[in-house]
Amino acid sequence: MSNTNREQQKLLNEIIEKAFEKKKNDNVIDENTLNATLESICEMTGMSRDEAEEIAKEVIEEHKNSTEPTKASEPLESPKPSKSSKSSKPSNFLLPRLVFSWFFGCFFLLLSILAFSKTLLGALCFFVIACLLLPPVRQFAYIKTGNKISFTARVFIIFLFMTFGVLTGERKDKEAQDIEKAKEHAEVVELIQYRKQ
Question: Which DSSP state fits 116?
């Protein structure tokens, strides 16, 4: 078992041990809490949802069969990822993904604040993009709704909102230029009329 797998397993064991300490009865499973915990585990460790569910099922079965919760010092056997599992992600993919999400999430949040002075719609578009990128906002939305937006859906939504936000900003700039041109034209016409008199 590699060092990262041991760390992941230790983290899972600590989470599960705390859950067992809070509720000592057989009715330990709360569906929303379990889903949120599994989502957090997937986000933190980079393992697939299926792998996390498998581990959770093993621990729940062990808990039902014994009265003592699993100790953090006893490592659970980590399920081997199947070759047919398409959702398996290597754990080294987690750090770049989190850095990307945080960097661009903060970038679009700042952009939404700056765009607020120009156009409200553009600012709202950039704010939605920031919400789709920032991990704590995604986790909060998942905990409250129980629905997770897939990566491809997020990319598509971000692309649409970015396009709309940029086009809205460009339209406002063009309108401002047109107004400026109209003012200049009105001044020229006024100057010509003044000279004719």
Answer: T
